[in-house]
């Protein structure tokens, strides 16, 4: 059953985000306008304009993700005959604060869902527990808010890094995402992994890096495209990704009754709350203009600049959709496919952990390229084939260890 679930999750992630990437690419292209503007050339009018607000797209995807999670939870409750429990329990609202307790026995902490028994004088077992409030930073709402904030920060920082580094460098950096996820799980949450996990992470990272790096060997690249600032931003982006995935693992390890779709719902909801002020409030067109109005000596180094507030992002986006109706379908596809893909992502995290999820996402491009080799008869370099072999070697080690664990578990059950 676990193998079937993993296969469904992997197939869902690949299919949803392959189509999602197509919608994202379409949104980065210009859309023709239906309104006539006398100050624009006919050539520009025919080509159109690009969608003005990535923030609006992120918010639309967060809305679609929360609705997808809600529909899944309601359907699952209906299928299992649990609709009578009410919406609060179905979405996990009642767990936000009830799981913030730590039960103690004789002064020792145990897991929030743990059950301990003590033997009384007549030999019968009795439950003995005392609830102590967890610190706020370790509570479920705080952890959910953290991952929502991390997820909201990672995207803009990644886009900013891409302005200062080449796309191949960004893809190559993202292929090493397994390393920060593993390290932050160990350093922040003291999580232990089997020795073979470290070998698998190293093999997959090296293999994907070879595949991406040597793919550009036959192409001419301009030297000096990657600035130190861009590489620094890429490093921050990878660090935030590691924080996000390791914190998600921590939530599932401490709140075992909290499902992946419940986490998805609240993460998307918190993301909407975080993005909404930036979407509806006017933002200065030049944020650095504030610095020139600060007291000396900070403002003395910068010439005084008037603070001009731009039109709210949501108004710009709605106006663009009205005058460029062709963009509506790609926006809906981008949001809905992202929401559908998130369902498979959170299912993978809940049952297999973030390391498995990241392995799925970083190998997605490799399998896409292999599919293109078969379908469109593209060619790979010898170095890329070596990278493919190293990746499959890592996956083979993971599969062999999983099979060994299943055999040992079966023997114990017998």
TrEMBL record:
Presence of the UniProt keyword Endoplasmic reticulum in the record: yes
UniProt keyword Ion transport, yes or no: no
Subcellular location, principal: endoplasmic reticulum
Signal peptide: none
Single GO molecular function: UDP-glucose transmembrane transporter activity
UniProt keyword annotations, A-Z: Endoplasmic reticulum, Membrane, Sugar transport, Transmembrane, Transmembrane helix, Transport
Membrane topology: Multi-pass membrane protein
Location in the cell: Endoplasmic reticulum membrane
Single GO cellular component term: endoplasmic reticulum membrane
InterPro entries referenced in this protein's UniProt entry, alphabetically: EmrE-like, SCL35B1-4/HUT1
Ranges that cross the membrane: 56-75, 143-165, 171-189, 198-215, 227-244, 265-283, 328-346, 355-376, 382-401
Family: Belongs to the nucleotide-sugar transporter family. SLC35B subfamily.
Name of the molecule in the record: UDP-galactose transporter homolog 1
Lineage: Eukaryota, Fungi, Dikarya, Basidiomycota, Agaricomycotina
């Amino acid at each position: 059953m676990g193998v079937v679930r993993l296969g469904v999750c992997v197939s869902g992630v690949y299919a949803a985000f392959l189509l999602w990437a197509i919608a994202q690419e379409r949104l980065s292209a210009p859309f023709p306008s239906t309104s006539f503007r006398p100050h624009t050339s006919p050539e520009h009018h025919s080509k159109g304009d690009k969608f003005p607000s990535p923030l609006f797209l992120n918010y639309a995807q967060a809305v679609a993700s929360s609705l997808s999670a809600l529909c899944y939870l309601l359907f699952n409750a209906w299928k299992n005959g649990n609709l009578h429990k009410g919406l609060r329990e179905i979405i996990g609202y009642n767990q936000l604060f009830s799981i913030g307790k730590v039960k103690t026995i004789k002064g020792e902490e145990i897991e929030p869902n743990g059950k301990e028994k003590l033997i009384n004088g007549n030999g019968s077992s009795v439950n003995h527990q005392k609830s102590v409030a967890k610190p706020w930073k370790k509570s479920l709402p705080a952890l959910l808010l953290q991952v929502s904030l991390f997820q909201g920060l990672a995207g803009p920082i990644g886009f900013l890094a891409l302005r200062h580094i080449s796309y191949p460098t960004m893809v190559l950096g993202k292929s090493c995402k397994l390393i920060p996820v593993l390290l932050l799980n160990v350093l922040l949450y003291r999580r232990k992994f089997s020795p073979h996990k470290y070998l698998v992470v190293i093999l997959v990272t090296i293999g994907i890096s070879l595949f991406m790096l040597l793919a550009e060997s036959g192409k001419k690249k301009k030297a000096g495209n990657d600035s130190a600032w861009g590489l620094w931003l890429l490093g921050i982006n990878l660090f935030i990704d590691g924080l996000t995935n390791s914190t998600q693992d921590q939530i599932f390890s401490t709140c075992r009754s909290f499902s992946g779709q419940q986490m998805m719902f609240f993460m998307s909801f918190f993301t909407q709350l975080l993005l909404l002020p930036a979407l509806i409030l006017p933002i200065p067109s030049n944020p650095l203009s504030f610095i020139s109005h600060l007291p000396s000596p900070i403002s003395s180094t910068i010439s005084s600049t008037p603070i001009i507030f731009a039109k709210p992002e949501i108004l710009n986006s709605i106006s663009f959709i009205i005058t460029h109706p062709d963009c509506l379908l790609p926006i809906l596809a981008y949001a809905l496919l992202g929401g559908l893909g998130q369902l498979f992502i959170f299912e993978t995290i809940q049952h297999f952990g973030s390391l498995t999820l990241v392995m799925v996402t970083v190998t997605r491009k490799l399998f896409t390229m292999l599919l293109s080799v078969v379908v469109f008869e593209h060619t790979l370099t010898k170095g890329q084939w070596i990278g493919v072999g190293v990746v499959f070697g890592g996956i083979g080690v993971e599969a062999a260890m999983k099979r060994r664990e299943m055999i040992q578990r079966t023997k114990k059950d017998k």
